[in-house]
Amino acid sequence: MAITASEIETSLTGILARCHELSLRQHIGEDEADKVIGYFPVYFPEEIVHAAGLRPHALYGGGNRVEVRYADARIGSFVCSICRSTTELGLNGSLNGLGGFFAQPICDAAKHMAGIWGRNFPQQDPQILALPQNVNSAASVRYVYDEYQRLREILAQKIGHAITDDALRASLRVYNENRRLQRALYALKREDPARLSTVEAYLLIRAGTRFRREEHNELLRNALELLAARHIRPMDKPRVVFLGGFCEQPPLEMIETIEDVCFVVDDDLLIGQRWITEDVPEDGDPVWALAESYIQRSAASPVQFDARKRKEDVLMTMMREARAEAAIISAAKFCEPGLDDQLALSRWLDQEKIPYLVLEFEEKMTSFEQMAMQVETFAESLLFV
Amino acid sequence: MANTALPAAKADARTTGQRLVNQWLANIHSAPERGQPVAYIFVMGNAVEILRTFDFELVFPEINSLQTGVRKAAPDFLAKAEDYGFSPDVCSYVKADVGLMLSNMEHPSGTHIPKPDIAIASSLCNVYIKWAEIWERHFGVPAFVLDIPGKRFANWQPLPGTPQYGADKRWVEGQLCDLIERCEHITGKKFDPDRLAEVESNVNEMIRLWVEILKLNQQRPAPYNSMLDGLTYIGVLNAWRGTPEGVEYMRLLHDEVAGKVARGEGRVQEERFRLIFSGTPCYVNMRRMVDLFESHGGVFAASDYLTYAAGGLDSSGLFYDPSRPLESLAEVTTLASQLGLSNHFFSHQTLAQQVKEYAADGIVYHGIKSCRTVATSMADNREYVTSRYGLPTLYIESDLIDPRYWSDAQIKNRVDAFFEVLEQRTLKGGR
Ligand code: SF4
Ligand code: SF4
User: Fold this and answer.
1) B86 CB near a chain A CB, below 8 Å?
2) Chain B within 8 Å of A303 (Cβ-Cβ)?
3) Residue B265 and residue B253: Cα distance in Å, rounded?
C-alpha cells in the first residue's frame, strides 16, 4: 500500500528530530569514553579513525546553547566563537571522554587549539595534523601520505594493534557510500529545493558527526527515499547560494531566516564533511588513495590555498551549476580568513553586477529580527531585478 | 666564503644599522630602474637564501606596515583599507599594506615600493597566505605558498634521522625545488648552488653572532632591552640576512654589546627587575610601553619575539652545511620552524625555560588584537605558567599599529599593580 503524504512527513520529522538532537549533543557518554577521537574543523581523514574501530567526532563548537564561563579567561578577546565555545566544552568537562584531539593548520586561531588542549587535557594526547597549505607541488601527495601514516601509527598505539590495509579499504567503502549519499542530497537540494530545505540537509549531514558512518548511511538512504516520495507544493523564491559556513557554524535559526524568503540551492556549510568530492579509489594503497584524494578530488574553502581554485571561480561555478541568481556571502565574526574572502568576493560580484548580500554572524547569536529584515529586503530586491 | 665587506673604520652598530636600513630602502626604490627583480616575503619562513642567489631585492610588507606605525602614519593607511571594506577584525598589518596599495605604493619612508615579481607566503602564519591572495588580485602575481610543517605538540622532537623528520624535510625540500624553478623562470638565470653556499656561510656567521648577542643579555644588568633595541637589531638582520654587510653589522653589534657587559653598563640605570616579553610590541606606543616598565627599573632581558621575528634561527645548533647547500637549507628551514617559529602555540615551556636562563622575575604577555598567530591562547598560556611554575605574570592587550586599541590608563594600572607584586616578592625574598 502506498505511503501517504502525512506518513512521509511524520517519518521525515522523526528522522530530522533525531538528527537535531544528535547534532546538539556535546557530551561524550561513559560508554564511549576514550573510543572517540575529536577533531576541530575543517577536514579530517575520518576513514583512518573508523578503520581503527574508533569514532571520529567533529567539534563544531557550542552553537548558541553553551554558556561560556571559563573560556573567556583563556582566549584573547579578538578570537572567533567556535574556538571559545570549544574550549569551554573542554573546560566544563563535556569532552572529558575524548580519547584524542586533533586540530589542523586552517588558521592561526585553530593552531592554538592544540596548545590549549595540550596544557589543559594532556591525557587526550592533543596535536596538530599538519595538512598542507600547498597542494600544488609534485611533492604534496607524498607529504599528506606521510602525515596520514603518522596518524595511523598514533591510533594503532591507542588501540594496541596495527590498522590493516584491509580495514582501511573497508572504511573507504563505507565513506564512499556516505559521500555518494551526501552528493545525492545536495543534487536534490540543487534541483528541487522545495523538496529538501538547507536546514534539513544540514541536519542530516551534521548527524553523521555523532555516530558510526554505517548508521549514518542507513539514515541518509531512508531520508532520500522519503524525500523522493515527498509531496511538495510549488513555491517561488529566489535561488541563492550561501557561503561562510566552512568552519564556525551559523545558527540554524539564521539559515531558517534566509530560507523563509530564498531557496539556498548550494552552500559551503559543513564543507569538511563533504571535502572529498568523488569516490576515493578502493584499490591500491588505501592511505595513498586518501592522501591523493585530499589533493586531487577536493572542495574549496577560504582556509585552503589552492592555485587551481581561485575563490571567485569557485563561487561562479557553484552559482552556475546551481542556477543561482544571487549570493549570500557571510563570515563569522573575528574569522580573518572568512572576512578576507567575504570582501574579495563581494568586490568581485560588484564588478560582475551579480546581486549579493553580506552577513556577519556568530554561532552564539540568538536574535535574528534584524537579519530577517535585511534578508527580506534583499529577496524583494531580487524579485524586481 | 667572504664575510667581510665594509670598510668599517670607526663604524658603530647604530649608525651602521641606520645606514644599512636606508640603503636597503633605496635599493628597493631603485630596483625597477636597475632591472632587478623584486620579491615580497615575510619574516617567518621566507627562503631568503634562495632569493639571494637569484639577486632578488627583498621587500618585507610586514616591516612596511610596522614602519607606518613607527612613523605615525598608520591611522591613515588603516582608514583607507577599512573604507575599502576591510573589517576592523582583520590583522592591521594587512590593512596597512592595503592602505599602501591604495596610496600607489608610496610609503611614508619616502620609498616607492615596486610591485613584486614573486610573492612568497609561508604557512607559519596563515594570514600570510590570505595576504598573498590580496597581492594576487592587486598585482596579478601568483602566490608561492611554502608550507612548512611546525610542531605538532609541545614536546615534539623533530630529531634528524627519524622517519618523521625525514618526511617533513623531504616535503620542504620538494617545495624549495619548485621555488627554484619558479625563480629560474622569472629571472632567466640558472640556479647556482655555489652562490647558495656562499649566502649560507654568511647566514651562519650572522647566526653565530646573534646567538651570542642574545646570550649576553643573560648578564645582570642586561645591556639592552630585547623589545626596543631588539627591534632595530632584527630589522637589519632580516633585510641583510646572508650578506657580507649583514655579517659586518652583527659583528659590530656583538662587540658593542659585549663592551657594555664588560663595563657593567645596563640598559636601565638601576636594574631592579628582569622580565621576559612574550608577544609583539605595540609599535605606535613603543616608547610609552618601554617607559611604563623601565620607570620601575624593569628591563626586558629576553623576548620570544626575537625568535620568530628573526626567522627562528637562534634555536640552538641550527647552522647550514654549505657543502650540501640545498639539502641543508631544507633541514634548517624545517628545524627552525619546529623548534622556534611554531612555538607560539606551545610556548609555555620555552617561556619558563627563558625565565631560568635569564634569571627573570616574571613574564609580560602582550596580547595583540591583530595577531591571532601570536596571541590567541596567551591568556591560557599565562594561566598555565602561573599555576604550574608559580611565576608572576602580567597580561595586557593592545595592537601592533592600531592606536585605537591602546588604552593607556588601563594598561598603566595593570603594569603598576604587576610591579607591586614583584616588589612584595622581593621584600619576602621570593625572587
Ligand atoms: S572560524 Fe575562522 S578564525 Fe575561527 S577557527 Fe574557524 S577558520 Fe579559524
Ligand atoms: S597575524 Fe600576526 S604574524 Fe600574521 S601577519 Fe598579522 S601580525 Fe604578522
Assistant:
1) yes
2) yes
3) 15
> With contact defined as beta carbons under 8 Å apart, do A127 and A114 qualify?
yes
Closest ligand 2 atom number to CA of residue B374? 2
- Could you tell me the strand order of the sheet in which A55-58 lies? A55-58, A36-39, A98-103, A127-128
CB-CB under 8 Å, A76 with B376: yes
Q: Does A306 touch chain B (CB under 8 A)?
A: no
Residue A278 CA to chain centroid, in angstroms?
A: 16
The tens digit of pLDDT for each residue in B156-196 reads 988 888 889 999 999 999 999 999 999 999 999 999 999 99
Task: Tell me, using a 6 A CB cutoff, whether residue A59 lines ligand 1.
Answer: no
Q: A223: Cβ–Cβ under 8 A, 6 or more apart, which residues?
A: A12, A15, A185, A204
Q: Where are the domains of chain B?
A: 13-427
Order of strands, sheet of B118-122, starting from the edge strand that comes earlier in the sequence? B57-59, B38-40, B118-122, B143-146
* Angstrom distance (rounded) from CA A122 to CA A112: 14
Give the CB-side neighbour count of residue A37, counting CA atoms within 13 A.
28
Around A216, how many Cα atoms within 13 Å sit in the side-chain half-sphere? 26
Ligand at shortest distance from the CA of B129: 2
Query: In angstroms, rounded to a whole number, what is the distance separating the alpha carbons of residues B83 and B95?
Result: 10
Nearest ligand, CA A111: 1
Amino acid making up residue A224: L
Distance of alpha carbon B298 from alpha carbon B223, whole angstroms: 13
Residue linked to cell 647566514: B203
Min CA distance, A269 vs chain B (Å)?
Answer: 21
DSSP string, A59-82: ----TTS---SSGGGTS-TTS-HH
Cβ–Cβ contact B15 with A under 8 A: no
Nearest to B167 among A74, A146, A334 (CB): A146
| A133/B147 CB distance under 8 A | yes
Query: What is the average pLDDT across B371-384?
Result: 95
Which of A40, A83, A362 to probe ligand 1 with, by most ligand atoms within 8 A of CB?
A83
Nearest CA to ligand 2 atom 7: B371
Chain B residues within 8 A of A90 when measuring between CB atoms: none
Distance of alpha carbon A352 from its chain centroid, rounded? 29
Nearest to A367 by CA among A23, A157, A75, A64: A64
B 313-352: CB under 8 A from A: 342, 344-348
pLDDT (tens place) for every residue of chain A, 385 residues total: 578 999 999 999 999 999 999 988 889 988 898 899 999 999 999 999 999 999 999 999 999 989 999 999 999 989 999 999 999 999 999 999 999 999 999 999 999 999 999 999 999 999 999 999 999 999 999 999 999 999 999 999 999 999 999 999 999 999 999 999 999 999 999 999 999 999 999 999 999 999 999 999 999 999 999 999 999 988 899 999 999 999 999 999 999 999 999 999 999 999 999 999 999 999 999 999 999 999 999 999 999 999 999 999 999 999 999 999 999 999 999 999 999 999 999 999 999 999 999 999 999 999 999 999 999 999 999 987 6
Distance in Å, alpha carbon of A180 to nearest chain B alpha carbon: 32
SS3 B377: coil
**Is residue B96 exposed (0-12), middle (13-18) or buried (19+ Cβ within 10 Å)?**
buried
